[in-house]
Amino acid sequence: MGIDLDMENENILTTKAEVNFDSLTGTFCIPVQSACTDEPECFSFALDETGIIFIDKTDSALNLVKRIQRNKKWRKPSLERFLYDFLEQIIHNDLRIMQRYELELDGIEKEIMTDAEDAHIQRNNEIRGDIRDLRIHYEQLQDLGQELEENENGFFEEDNLRYFHMFSSRVDRLYDAATHLRDYTIQLNDLYQSQLDVKQNRIMTVLTVVTTIFMPLTLIAGWYGMNFKYMPELNSKIGYPVVIGLSLLIVIGSLTFFKIKKIL
After folding, report:
1. What is the sign, positive or negative, of the torsion defined by CA atoms of 178, 184, 185, 190?
2. What is the CATH architecture assignment of 60-195?
3. Superfamily assignment of 199-260 in CATH?
4. Domain map of the chain by residue range?
5. What is the pLDDT, as a whole number, of residue 161?
6. What is the pTM of this model?
7. pLDDT digits (tens, 9 = 90+) for 167-209
8. Of 148, 146, 133, 167, which Cα lies nearest the Cα of 29?
């Protein structure tokens, strides 16, 4: 094709397209979440009016092309339709991935509401990281779709540019879904923290109530523990029962007060 192109794929980190004088070149970097692999799938491409080639040291691009051969039938074959199907194969599983993440987040929310300390909040953070990678991927696909739709070099027929617009619309919806899930993960973190704060506040309330009840009892115990000769009721036969009754009255009165104030 006579196109000057860097053949190395090791340093591919983004999905992009570059418009040249006589060609359109670029790279694909499909994240593991979308590719369902252990490593990102990376390869290059070059395109002109005669067709498109992929430069790939693995079988990533070849597998996508074979999937198109198995599943697609074209009434009017064209380069634009092939590119649309190729790009669609990259994101065809992403909607199910989003739905799976949403179900996981729903489960985590129920766990938080039941018992925040036993909730798998770390999984929520992992999902947020996955969603971040997908949002970056969709942003790059949006730019790629715009480059193709602009058709700066005139490689594509005007009537077929609608394919690229359709692809860009799908990516926009996926981007919005990823943004929604990212916000959901942030809300779950806030909910988790608020539930822990509520539990901690309950513990502090109980400790405060106990401290408040025992403060006057501690005063009485300290007072009568001094054993001065002329203390009230020291030599009385009913002095001890009176102190016990007074202590019980203080406890019952304090509990009644806290119940009325709805502190307990």
Report:
1. positive
2. Up-down Bundle (1.20)
3. Magnesium transport protein CorA, transmembrane region (1.20.58.340)
4. 60-195, 199-260
5. 92
6. 0.75
7. 999 999 999 999 999 999 999 999 999 888 888 887 888 888 8
8. 133
